[in-house]
């Protein structure tokens, strides 16, 4: 029996070889594996070597207008740098060229890339690079393990067009990625990409800090959270706020925006969505298949996409991971500011009028009369409405809802709370030395003057607050005065 085995094996190997030959031959004749590739594009590089001009994210190198393959020299340096991951929160990032993500590399299909990887002498770790655009062992990682103060070089031919992730693949790999070591390499097809008015570069990543979300100071890497795949932060471009406020991406009315979007992970897949936008084109998984009119596109960990959207009206569009807890409570939020004239035919805000308000319905008004009734009514309103956000114990939720218990903000000015409940509150506030930047909705339309007076009196006299009374006539006056500003 044992002598049969080699015969059976070699017969099947032979069959496999015969079977494989036509496929291999076909590949050799058409090395790109798809019809658009020109055989000449895979010949020797032509002309003098080109030094790739790298720029910081969210910028991208200029489009390629070459019609022949070239030798492109790319220089990356791995650096370990302490930077802010959110306002007042610092983290020891491991990076390519000092940024998370590392710079976007842009080459043409058929180019030969000469990749130089330096490791900053001040690094503590060895690093390497695995580029998903490489056909070869480790995507280059096996040729680039680089100790601090050293440089490695390897070359590869960019055999396939697409948007590809690169990352460090030094053990423990998840830790090197979680610390920010990833970026994108775009391999343009021979005919180039269609023109877009604006091009930007965005990469999502999940981060694991020992402190809770927004806990200030220098935070270290948390291996337990990594193992549980429960990130503290989920971010675009390595920092909360990297693409919002003054850092927002820009577009103009009537322009098109192309986003190269990658997901470094290490763990989470991204449901990438632009609030207020539709992807005219989305390159599925960063490959050659283009989908149209897409609302949300999935970007796997270690994957990428290229999306194009039109921006026909002015205003702000928001980039999010539509697993929206990550967007609103872990930082995965970006912004595109579109400037230009209003386009009422496409988007127009109508008036906002009161449809019905509880205050206008005397029959439904709180009937609480005595102090005991008022306290019970306040408790009911608190439990039915306020506790949904501020929590049943009034302690709030870190990073999302401020506490009403022992709140210095509330106790220092209880009258101010009337306007907050009536008209809502947004923007930055500080409660018990912790910053909050969130939105409380206006509750004036659904709560009567009595109910607001009762709930505020209840809150002031419970949860270790300083006591005091808010009367219905005070609420009535603030309601009549209308919202501030
Ligand atoms: Cu590394």
From TrEMBL:
What broad class of enzyme is this?
A: oxidoreductase
Which keywords does the record carry?
A: Copper, Heme, Iron, Metal-binding, Oxidoreductase, Repeat, Signal
Q: Which GO terms describe its molecular function?
A: nitrite reductase (NO-forming) activity
Residue ranges annotated for the Cytochrome c domain, each copy included: 373-463
Q: Which residues form the signal peptide?
A: 1-28
- Per the UniProt entry, the Enzyme Commission number(s) are 1.7.2.1
Name the CDD domains for this protein.
CuRO_1_CuNIR, CuRO_2_CuNIR
Cofactor names: Cu(2+); Cu(+)
What family name appears in the similarity comment? Belongs to the multicopper oxidase family.
Q: Which named protein is this?
A: Copper-containing nitrite reductase
Source organism (scientific name): Rhodanobacter terrae
């Amino acid at each position: 029996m044992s002598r049969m085995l080699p015969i059976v094996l070699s017969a099947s190997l032979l069959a496999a070889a015969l079977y494989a030959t036509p496929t291999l031959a076909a590949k050799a004749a058409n090395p790109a594996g798809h019809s658009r590739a020109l055989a000449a594009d895979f010949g020797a590089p032509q002309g003098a070597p080109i030094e790739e001009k790298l720029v910081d994210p969210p910028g991208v190198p200029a489009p390629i207008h070459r019609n022949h393959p070239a030798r492109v020299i790319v220089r990356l340096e791995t650096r370990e740098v302490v930077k802010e991951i959110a306002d007042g929160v610092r983290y020891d990032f491991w990076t390519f060229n000092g940024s998370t993500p590392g710079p976007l590399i842009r080459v043409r299909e058929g180019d030969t890339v000469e990749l130089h990887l330096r490791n900053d002498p001040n690094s503590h770790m060895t690093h390497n690079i695995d580029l998903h655009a490489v056909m070869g062992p480790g995507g280059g990682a096996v040729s680039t393990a680089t100790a601090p103060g050293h440089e490695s070089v390897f070359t590869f031919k960019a055999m396939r067009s697409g948007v590809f992730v690169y990352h460090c693949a030094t053990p423990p790999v998840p830790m090197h990625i979680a610390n920010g070591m990833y970026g994108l390499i775009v391999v343009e097809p021979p005919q180039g990409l269609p023109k877009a008015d604006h091009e930007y570069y965005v990469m999502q990543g999940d981060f694991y800090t020992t402190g809770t979300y927004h806990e200030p100071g220098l935070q270290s890497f948390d291996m337990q959270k990594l193992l549980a795949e429960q990130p503290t932060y989920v971010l675009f471009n390595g920092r909360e706020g990297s693409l919002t406020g003054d850092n927002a991406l820009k577009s103009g009315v009537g322009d098109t925006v192309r986003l190269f979007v990658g997901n470094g992970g290490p763990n989470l897949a991204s449901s990438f969505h632009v609030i207020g936008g539709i992807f005219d084109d989305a390159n599925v998984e960063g490959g050659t298949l283009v989908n149209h009119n897409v609302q949300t596109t999935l970007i796997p960990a270690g994957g990428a996409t290229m999306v194009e959207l039109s921006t026909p009206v002015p205003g702000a569009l928001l980039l999010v991971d539509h697993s929206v807890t990550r967007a609103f409570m872990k930082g995965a939020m970006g912004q595109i500011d579109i400037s230009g004239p209003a386009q009422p035919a496409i988007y127009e805000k109508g008036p906002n009028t009161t449809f019905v308000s509880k205050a206008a319905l005397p029959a439904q008004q709180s009937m609480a009369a005595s102090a005991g009734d008022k306290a019970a009514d306040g408790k009911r309103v608190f439990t039915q409405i306020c506790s949904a956000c501020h929590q049943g114990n009034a302690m709030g939720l870190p990073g999302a809802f401020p506490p009403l218990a022992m709140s210095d903000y509330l106790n220092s000015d209880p009258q101010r709370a009337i306007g907050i409940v009536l008209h809502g509150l947004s923007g930055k506030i500080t409660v018990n030395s912790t910053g909050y930047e969130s939105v409380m909705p206006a509750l004036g339309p659904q709560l009567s003057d009595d109910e607001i007076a009762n709930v505020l009196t209840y809150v002031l006299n419970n949860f270790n607050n300083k006591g005091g009374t808010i009367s219905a006539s005070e609420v009535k006056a603030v309601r009549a005065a209308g919202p501030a500003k």
